[in-house]
Design a protein that fits this description.
α5 runs antiparallel to α7. The longest helix is centred in the middle third of the chain and has 55 residues. The strands form four sheets. Strands 1, 2, 11, 12, 13, 14, 17 and 18 form an eight-stranded antiparallel sheet that branches. The chain has a four-stranded antiparallel sheet with strand order 3-10-8-5, with no helix packed on it. It has a four-stranded antiparallel sheet with strand order 7-6-4-9, with no helix packed on it. It starts with a helix and ends in a 10-residue tail after the last strand. 43% of the residues lie in helices and 21% in strands. It is α+β, with helices and mostly antiparallel strands and 421 residues long.
């Protein structure tokens, strides 16, 4: 509007000055009208809404930035799992393997077959010998029956006492075995963490040797506790079987004494039923074959690990997880149920969720490194980390091997369930 007024005054003065120079007397004022603006077509709607679109875009960028500030990365993370060990209950050669590494198996599916012919023959011989020994005794008299009944009653009382002691010993051995297994797993994870960080180069030769020696000693103690528990279990099972036999003998002698007749007792040597041994070893849960340690045709000892199984399917959430350590102010906002992104060393990306948040603690010995120590009042003290157990959802991807290093990012902020891209 101001520009049009200036143009109008400029034209008016030019006309007036021209008339004065020509000697023309203007009796009337000269009015000049500016041309009216032509009315054009209105601007498009999207063009008029450009400020609104810009505001919405700025708001979306702000929301995404706010969500991104809630992502808390881990300082240390490692995949862990409860691995099932498949081992035979008797020593025999391995006849054939039905699976190979990487195969997925269902619960109850046969994994391998042992050559149990020699073991089955031994069981048959033992059964025939026991039957022959039972048949050597002749028909008892009244005095012999009473004496045997009294001896059976005394043996039952003694066996009950010994069985109680055996059960107590078995429980103690089981508890010791569980403690030794837990100690070995903790030291093994510690050694794996050192190896994943570079081994001797990261922590020094002496500390690495100390960790290796501690893990080896814990393994020996675990194996020893396993042997002692199995021996106590066999002893308890043998006593229960013997107690059952004594009670059957007592019942038979009581029946014979109550009838007060002693007809010739037929031979007790009965045909021993044929013993059938299941030579197959089966998968205890839905799982994936992690390792096949045995070789078909080679002998395997009792308790020797032949196949390692990694639980899959419905068992993954219970037996497969990531142990991650977080530090900083963002760790205080981590809660159970929050989603997590897991990035493995090979570039594979998995999804998970926070299962448990534990109390802050220092990193296990051998995993601290330079970042695990901070200076407080001039003294070096271990930094406190927040341990978090995170579930793993592999989807269609194969499960990675336990001990693999990973990087976890927990998404702590959301808007109506949206955690960002």
């Amino acid at each position: 509007m101001l520009q049009n007024l200036v143009r109008y005054l400029h034209i008016f003065f030019r006309v007036k000055c021209h008339a004065s120079s020509q000697g023309i007397v203007m009796s009337e004022a000269l009015y000049i009208e500016m041309p009216a603006r032509k009315k054009g077509s209105p601007r498009p709607l999207w063009l008029r809404l450009i400020p609104l679109w810009a505001l919405l875009l700025l708001l979306a960028v702000g929301v995404l930035w706010w969500l991104a500030q809630g992502r808390v990365p881990s300082e240390r993370a490692m995949l862990d799992a409860m691995v099932h060990v498949i081992a035979p209950e008797f020593s025999a050669p391995v006849e054939a393997f039905y699976v190979k590494e990487g195969d997925r198996v269902r619960r109850g599916q046969p994994l391998l077959r042992m050559n149990a012919r020699a073991y089955q023959g031994r069981l048959g011989e033992a059964g025939r010998e026991a039957a022959a020994l039972r048949g050597m005794a002749g028909p008892p008299t009244m005095e012999e029956t009473a004496a045997r009944l009294k001896a059976a009653q005394d043996a039952e009382q003694d066996m009950v006492r010994r069985l109680a002691l055996a059960r107590n010993e078995e429980d103690a051995k089981l508890q010791l075995r569980q403690e030794r297994v837990s100690t070995h797993v903790r030291l093994q994870l510690r050694l794996r963490g050192i190896d994943s960080q570079g081994g001797e180069r990261s922590v020094g030769k002496s500390r690495y040797a100390e960790a290796s020696q501690a893990e080896a000693q814990a393994r020996r103690h675990m194996e020893q506790a396993k042997v002692e528990f199995e021996e106590a279990s066999r002893m308890r099972a043998a006593m229960e079987q013997e107690l059952g036999r004594i009670r059957q003998e007592m019942l038979r002698y009581k029946q014979m004494a109550s009838q007060q007749r002693y007809a010739p007792v037929p031979s007790r040597a009965q045909a021993t039923p044929s013993v059938v041994v299941d030579a197959n070893l089966y998968a205890p849960v839905d799982s994936r074959v992690l390792r096949v340690l045995g070789v078909a045709g080679q002998p395997a000892q009792r308790g020797e690990a032949l196949v390692l199984l990694l639980p899959e399917g419905a068992s993954v959430t219970e037996n497969y997880w990531v142990q991650a350590y977080f530090i900083g102010e963002g760790a205080d906002f981590i809660q159970a149920g929050q989603p997590c992104r897991i990035e493995l060393e090979d570039g594979q990306s998995l999804r998970g969720a926070v299962l448990d948040v534990l109390a802050p603690q220092a990193l296990p010995t051998g995993q601290q490194g330079a970042q695990g120590v901070k200076s407080v009042d001039g003294a070096a003290k271990p930094a406190m980390y927040v341990p978090v157990r995170i579930s793993v959802d592999p989807g269609a991807n194969p499960l990675p091997v336990p001990g693999t290093s990973a990087r976890c990012v927990v998404l702590t902020r959301s808007i109506l369930g949206f955690y960002g891209f």
